[in-house]
Amino acid sequence: MKTLYGDNVIRLFIYADRETVRKRQQELGLAEEDIERHMSHYEEEMSYMPKCEHAFENIDIGHTTYEITNVLEGYLQRDLVDKD
Q1: Fewer CB atoms inside 10 Å of the end CB: C or N, the chain?
Q2: CA nearest 11: which of 73, 71, 82?
Q3: Rounded Cα–Cα distance for residues 11 and 5 (Å)
Q4: In this structure, are residues 25 and 38 in contact, taking their beta carbons and an 8 Å threshold?
Q5: Model-level pTM?
């Protein structure tokens, strides 16, 4: 998308630290083998963050949503999004 549309596209990266991700998956009741399989991709997924225009650590979903909304409103006010 970024290649096709350039600055008309922004990339948002939402993440949590490794231990938070593990804890959330345990709280969901996932099997340890499934958690390990998911966690084996953690570093690869995190390596994408520097390529994104914005990164948000998702500690609290309400706060994270608020931060994302503020960023998006800034772009909308700059007319970078076609409002038609």
Answers
A1: C
A2: 71
A3: 12
A4: yes
A5: 0.80
CA atoms of 84 and 71, how far apart (whole Å): 20
Domain residue spans of the chain: 10-77
Task: Record the tokens describing residue 81, joined without a space.
Answer: 């999004």
User: Per-residue pLDDT tens for 6-41?
Assistant: 888 999 999 999 999 999 999 999 999 999 999 999
The helix (H) or strand (E) run that includes residue 15 is strand 12-15
Least confident of 15-19, 42-46, 64-68, 72-76: 72-76
Mean pLDDT of 43-69: 96
Kindly state the tokens that stand for 58. 């998702």
SS3 59: coil
